[in-house]
Specification:
With 263 residues, this protein is an alpha+beta fold. The chain is built from nine helices and ten strands. Helix 5 packs antiparallel against helix 6 and helix 7 packs across helix 9.
Length: 263
């Protein structure tokens, strides 16, 4: 790693320290893990400003990384934040203990939804998300190579345009809550039998609680059915709803999983 390209205010905090490169995730950003901090380097984006505002707002509200420094240059942005202790929810420590995993995931979701969102500085409500999806589609900014197998083709939608039109015409009623935005297992950290933090808050803000639930359910399913190489025979991901104490709304779950194909 060439540290000379990193802004001085950040470089002086990390230069000379040992680090690892984290290759988990699909954001495309470069993530360097230091003993007590994490540096995320990615292409310049106006969306990150909103993420940083939310992260600062979350201090004292949720266990999440604290912003140490945020800088931009002409092409890239650099976010230095505190390290979240523990292990990802998809670590085999927890996948091999499904009852504990379900309990902690349910606690994590309730923790998000119970966050007071009165003065949350960012909104990710559905009309804005659909407008963003259409802009991305019309400008060739969406990568559909990692879609769910059933989204397109036989039994699915004929094209991304057909899917987006369906999403625009079938908006579900809103149940607003503070939302992580990408509530998959790699973004939830546990330490022992407790929640130690949430990471990758780039899509966080006020949104429908079912968006978090849909992406968490999908991630739980794929992390236990062999999709990522690990399988728990006989595991039923729908047990998540039992742990949450709610009745699944399968229409809403499907809607937000389909919406996520554009993000």
């Amino acid at each position: 790693m060439d540290f000379d390209c990193i802004p001085v205010s950040i470089r002086k905090e990390i230069e000379g320290l040992p680090y690892e490169i984290n290759e988990t995730g699909m954001s495309g950003a470069q993530v360097l893990i230091f003993p007590k901090a994490v540096l995320k380097i990615g292409p310049r984006s106006a969306l990150t400003d909103g993420m940083v505002r939310v992260m600062r707002w979350l201090e004292g509200r949720l266990p999440a990384p604290r912003v140490l420094a945020f800088e931009k240059d002409a092409e890239k942005e650099y976010l230095l934040m505190t390290h979240v202790p523990g292990k990802m929810a998809c670590d085999k420590t927890y996948l091999n203990r499904p009852e504990l995993l379900l309990k902690l995931l349910a606690e994590a979701l309730h923790m998000l939804w119970e966050t007071d969102m009165t003065d949350c500085p960012r909104s990710r409500l559905l009309d804005d998300e659909l407008a963003h999806a259409r802009h991305s589609l019309e400008n060739g900014l969406v990568d559909f190579s990692n879609c769910e197998p059933e989204t397109f083709g036989p039994g699915g939608f004929k094209s991304p345009e057909a899917l987006l039109t369906w999403l625009e015409n079938n908006k579900p009623p809103l149940e607003p809550a503070f939302s992580h935005g990408d509530c998959c297992l790699p973004n939830i950290f546990f330490e022992g039998g407790r929640i130690s933090g949430f990471i990758d808050l780039g899509d966080a803000g006020i949104a429908d609680k079912w968006r978090d639930l849909a992406l968490c359910y999908r991630s739980l399913k794929h992390n236990t059915d062999g999709f990522y190489g690990f399988k728990i025979p006989g595991f039923r991901p729908e047990k998540l709803f039992d742990a949450l104490g709610i009745v699944p709304d399968w229409d809403k779950l499907r809607y937000y999983i389909l919406l996520d194909e554009f993000f």
